[in-house]
Amino acid sequence: MDFMKEGVGSLVNPILARHARDMNLARVNPMNQEMKSDRRGESRLEAIAAGKPVEAVIHERVLQAEPAVEIQDFSLWYGKKQALHGVTMPIPKGEVTALVGPSGCGKSTLLRSVNRMNDLIDGLTVSGDILLGGESILAPGVDVIALRKRMGMVFQKPNPFPMSIFENVVYPLRIDGVRDRQTLREVCEHSLRGAALWDEVRDRLHESGLSLSGGQQQRLCIARAIASDPEVLLLDEPCSALDPLATNKIEDLIQDLRGEYTILIVTHNMQQAARISDYTAFMYLGRLIEYGETSQIFTKPHLKETEDYVTGRFG
Ligand SMILES: Nc1ncnc2c1ncn2[C@@H]1O[C@H](COP(=O)(O)OP(=O)(O)O)[C@@H](O)[C@H]1O
Ligand SMILES: [Mg+2]
Q1: Do residues 97 and 281 lie in contact, with contact meaning Cβ atoms separated by under 8 Å?
Q2: C-alpha neighbours within 13 Å on the C-beta side of residue 267
Q3: How far is ligand 2, taken at its centre, from the CA of residue 269, in Å?
Q4: Among candidates 119, 9, 20, 114, which has minimal Cα distance to 68?
Q5: Is pLDDT above 90 for 142?
Q6: What are the phi and psi torsion angles at 285 (to 5°)?
Q7: Contact between residue 252 and residue 169 where contact means Cβ atoms under 8 Å apart
Q8: Phi, psi of 314 (to 5 degrees)
Q9: SS3 letters across 56-114
Q10: What is the distance between the alpha carbons of residues 239 and 234, in angstroms, rounded to a whole number?
Q11: Nearest in space to 92 (alpha carbons), one of 115, 65, 63, 57
Q12: What is the rounded average pLDDT for all residues in the chain?
C-alpha cells in the first residue's frame, strides 16, 4: 500500500485518509498516542454516537491467526433499526474469542447471525458476508440445519428440554434419525465427559434434565451442543445465571474445550473475559471498536475508549 510509504498527508479524500491513518497506525505503529482520539480531539465513541464512520482497530495478531469464521463487513437491520454496522471480524480457529461491550451494543445479534438464528425474525435485513471454513453461510442454497450442526449454541439461561438427561444429550442425533443404542450411548458419555458432567450424572441418566442444578443444566446444554460434533461453540453469557462455583466449572470447561473447538463467547464480566479468552473484541453501538489479544486489550489497548470500558469506567 503506497499511501503508507508516502504518509497520510498526501491523501486528499478525508475518509480514505482516516482509513489509511487507522490502518497505518494499527499495523505499523500500534502504540502511537495519536490513535487515542481523532484529529478534532473527539472520542471515537462520540463520533459513532453522532453517526460518523469510524474504522475498527484490529491488532495484527488477530489478522495473522487462521480463521474458523470470517465476519465480513456485516450489517444487520431489525426493520428500520440498524443493529450492526459493517462488522469485520475474523474468529481464530481453536481459540477462545470474547465479545464484550455495553448492553444493547449488538453482541447477541452478532452471535445469532453466525449460525443464522436471526433468520426467524420478521423484517430482518443483512448485508456483507459471514464465512465458515471459507464458505459463505448466507449464500442461496445453504442448508441451515446442516450449518447449525456445525455450530453449537448455548444461551444465558440453561434450557434443557423436558426429557431425560440421556435424551437431552443425544437430541441432535435423534433429529438425524440415529437409533443405534450403542452409538447413542457412546455419544452421550463422550459429550457428558466433554462437558465435565459425566461423573455427576452417570448413575441418573434417565432422570429428567430439569432435575439438575442450574450449573449442571448449563453443562448439560454444553454437552448437547457438542453432541453433534460442531466446529464452533457460540456461548451467549453462559454464566450470567449461575453462582460463582458453577461459573468456575464452566470457565474450566471452556479452557478444556479450547483447541478442539473454536469458541466465541459473549460476556459482560471483564474478569471472565480476561481469564478465559485468547482474544477480546470490544463493541459499541453496533460497531467493532477494537479487537486484539486479550492480554493486550486488558493491559495496553490501542484506544483509550477500550481502556475506559475494560477498566469499568463506563458501560
Ligand atoms: N428481535 C429484535 N427486534 C428488534 N430489535 C432487536 C431485536 N433483538 C435485539 N434488538 C435490538 O438490537 C440492539 C442490539 O441488541 P443485542 O444484540 O441483544 O445486544 P447485546 O447482546 O449486546 O446486549 C439493541 O438495540 C436491541 O434492542
Ligand atoms: Mg445479549
Answers
A1: yes
A2: 25
A3: 12
A4: 114
A5: yes
A6: 45, 50
A7: no
A8: -155, 170
A9: CEECHHHHHCCEEEEEEEEEEEECCEEEEEEEEEEEECCCEEEEECCCCCCHHHHHHHH
A10: 13
A11: 65
A12: 88
Backbone angles phi, psi at 73, to 5 degrees: 45, 50
**273: nearest Cα among 231, 227, 243, 306:** 306
Q: How far apart are CA 243 and CA 221, in angstroms?
A: 17
C-beta of 83 in contact with ligand 1 (< 6 A) = yes
Å from CA of 186 to ligand 2 middle:
34
List Cβ<8 Å contacts ≥24 apart for 49-53: 49/285, 53/15, 53/18
- Please, what's the largest Cα pairwise distance for the chain? 72
Handedness of CA 14, 20, 23, 26 (dihedral sign): negative
CB burial readout 194-222, b (16+ within 10 A) else e: bbbbbebbeeebeeebeebeebbbbbbbb
How far is it, in rounded angstroms, from Cα 110 to Cα 20?
26
What pLDDT score does 34 carry? 42
Nearest CA to ligand 1 atom 24: 104
Average pLDDT, integer, range 119-138: 95
Other residues' Cβ atoms within 10 Å of the Cβ of residue 32 = 13
- The model's pLDDT over 48-91, given as tens digits with 9 standing for 90+, comes to 888 888 899 999 999 999 999 999 999 999 999 999 999 999 99
Atom number, ligand 1, closest to the C-alpha of residue 79: 4
